[in-house]
Design goal:
By secondary structure, the protein is an alpha+beta fold. The protein folds into 3 domains: 86 residues, Acyl-CoA dehydrogenase/oxidase, N-terminal domain (Butyryl-Coa Dehydrogenase, subunit A, domain 1, Orthogonal Bundle); 107 residues, Butyryl-CoA Dehydrogenase, subunit A, domain 2 (Beta Barrel); 148 residues, Butyryl-CoA Dehydrogenase, subunit A, domain 3 (Up-down Bundle). The chain contains 11 helices and 11 strands. A 4-stranded antiparallel sheet has the order 4-5-9-8, with no helix packed on it. A 3-stranded mixed sheet has the order 3-6-7, covered by helices on one side. A hairpin with a 2-residue loop joins strand 4 and strand 5. Helix 7 packs antiparallel against helix 8 and helix 9 runs antiparallel to helix 10. It starts with a helix and ends with a helix. Keywords: FAD, Flavoprotein, Oxidoreductase. InterPro entries: Acyl-CoA_dehydrogenase, Acyl-CoA_Oxase/DH_mid-dom, Acyl-CoA_Oxase/DH_mid-dom_sf, AcylCo_DH-like_C, AcylCo_DH/oxidase_C, AcylCoA_DH/ox_N, AcylCoA_DH/ox_N_sf, AcylCoA_DH/oxidase_NM_dom_sf. Belongs to the acyl-CoA dehydrogenase family. Its cofactor is FAD. Homodimer.
């Protein structure tokens, strides 16, 4: 790991542990995530500490994916950490996409406020599966975009749109005659209505996850991101690193949960000795160390692939499956070894368990990634037969 990443990561870890962790009991946290007031307060403290948006350097360049992995893991040591230091989803992925695809004017208008931590964003891709829309398959997208003069008119519905409530920047995916497109929009917009914020198992992301209706949204032609019909390509530019950064953040959360479980089992006595000395408990914590290290190595491997300039779709799918499943095991064991305390709000272990359970679905369920990998296995086999 580079010296600069170690230095940045150490400052982020210290800030999260010393400043952010005490906010974990703040009443401004709800089932739909921390309030915007709380997010603004945390970001102001991060700005003062010099750790706001730590993965983007002052000249606008990014840390490498390997370096980002180290820094984002430190930000994840608290469920509030990524929001506090501005490395949270969907903003982190949206910043990455805008940095890669946006025009200079689009970056000035839409990216710069995100980097400064002055605004939140939302990525409008997923659609309600009950309407036959694009759940985990964006090729099924039903939202349409029709060119009318120098504007595009967008209509459709979206679901599970993280952070839509309270966002100021939106990236909307829709389908033109050319194929999938992406549009940059200022939020709120009267043509975009939040029908409801879903009651989900997780609660760490500001604004929660919304179902949204888009009716005759008029977007100036110069606010299309890239070119008409290339939206699926841009989605892959965003999604491969975004899957990986999810893994980074939740690895940090599970490291912290394991620290709490370890402390608990060393202090708690039962049947004449500390819990840690009971093999059934000690072995679970040993398994946690193995899973955490394997998750870390998978993340670093995938980061190296992306840093080498490869698309990384296959590698990010493999990593997302392996890491989300491993971290689910870690979080589950932390709850189990802590017994009744593990299912209470006395520590963040309960929340980490719930967040990681959702992570197994968000950015593609495990089964969708395995299906994609199986298709690649078949394609590769056919190529070898030629």
């Amino acid at each position: 790991m580079s010296a600069r990443a170690q230095e940045i990561g150490a400052r982020v870890a210290a800030f999260v542990r010393q400043v952010v962790v005490p906010y974990e009991r703040d009443p401004r946290r709800s089932a739909h995530g921390p309030s915007d007031e709380l997010v603004a307060e945390l970001r102001e403290r991060a700005r003062a500490a010099g750790v706001l948006t730590p993965h983007i350097l002052p000249d606008g360049s990014h840390l490498s994916q390997r370096e980002t992995a180290y820094v984002l893991r430190q930000s994840g040591l608290s469920p509030l950490g990524p929001l506090a230091v501005n490395t949270a989803a969907p903003d982190e992925g949206n910043m990455y996409l805008l940095g890669k695809v946006g025009t200079p004017e689009q970056k000035r208008r839409f990216l710069d406020p995100l980097v400064r931590g002055e605004a939140r964003s939302a990525f409008f891709m997923t659609e309600p599966a009950v309407d036959g829309g694009a759940g985990s398959d964006p090729s099924m997208m039903q939202t349409t975009a029709v060119l009318d003069g120098n504007h595009w008119v967008v209509n459709g519905r979206k679901a599970f749109i993280t952070g839509a409530e309270g966002a100021r920047v939106g990236i909307v995916m829709a389908k033109s005659d050319d194929g999938a497109c992406m549009f940059l929009v200022d939020l709120p917009d009267p043509a975009i209505t939040i029908e409801r914020v879903l009651d989900t198992i997780d609660s760490s992301m500001a604004g929660g996850h919304a179902v949204v209706r888009i009716e005759n949204l008029r977007v100036p032609a110069d606010q299309m991101l890239g070119h008409s019909g290339e939206g699926l390509k841009y989605a892959q530019v965003r999604l491969a690193p975004a899957r990986l950064s999810h893994c980074m953040r939740w690895l940090g959360a599970c490291v912290r949960a394991n620290e709490i479980a370890t402390d608990y089992t060393n202090r708690r006595h039962a049947f004449g000795k500390p819990l840690i000395d009971h093999e059934g408990v000690g072995f679970m914590l040993a398994d946690n160390l193995i899973d955490l290290k394997q998750a870390e190595l998978m993340i670093d491997w995938c980061a190296d692939v992306l840093d080498a300039g490869e698309p990384g779709g296959t590698e990010s799918s493999m990593t997302k499956v392996a890491v989300s499943e491993a971290l689910m095991r870690v979080a589950d064991r932390c709850v189990q070894v802590m017994g009744g305390t593990g299912v209470t709000g006395d520590t963040i272990v309960k929340q980490v368990f719930r967040e990681v359970r959702a992570f197994r679905i968000y950015d593609g369920p495990t089964e969708v990634h395995k299906w994609s990998l199986a298709k690649k296995i078949k394609r590769d086999w056919k190529e070898r037969q030629k």
